[in-house]
Design goal:
By secondary structure, the protein is mainly alpha-helical. Helices cover 57% and strands 5% of the residues. The chain has a three-stranded mixed sheet with strand order 2-1-3.
Length: 214
Amino acid sequence: MRIDSASVFCAYAFARKSAKPRPFLSEAGLYDFAVKTLGRAMRSEAELRRLMQSRAEPGEPGAAAIAAALTRLREHGYLDDAAFAETYARLRQENEKLGLRRVRQNLQQKGVASALIAETLEARYGATNEETLAREHLERKRLRKPENEKETARIMRRLVAAGFSTGVIYKILRQWDVPPRPWPLSTTWTRSRATNSRPLPLPPSGPFSVRLVA
């Protein structure tokens, strides 16, 4: 018996259409959902709240259930943004060798409070030698001294995306006796898997920043 692809697609579409929507979770259900979610991966409170909103009843009843579940999670030690931020920053620094700017941006995207981010990064990066960390990042990525302009540009992009300042990047290139590419010191680097966009220069007097688009 031969089954064509059109028949399979129709059956799949019918099954999806006829599937019942998931019921909304009560406060107890949201609490259990959150505990299981946190057991799979670290989450900030803002991230967890967003996930719970997809399972809670819309409007005031759902918001109240989420608030109550979050309170229980804090009381039971499952949810602590200070501990989350410290652990996240430590792992990104020690394991991935990321610079302060990249970690700050990631924590902002995860909804951690600005004051807590500043406190966490001061404790984690305050005594860190940025140049040493940048060289460790290059070693981890197995990036060696560039042999041409194209390789130089690649290393500059990697280091900017990893959160290192242009001053440190240029210092490493000078010690390699490699002239840096003639980019402005003030650069916004945008990386997008969907668009593969290129670096966007800012005016020379503008601030230095790194912006990563997921």
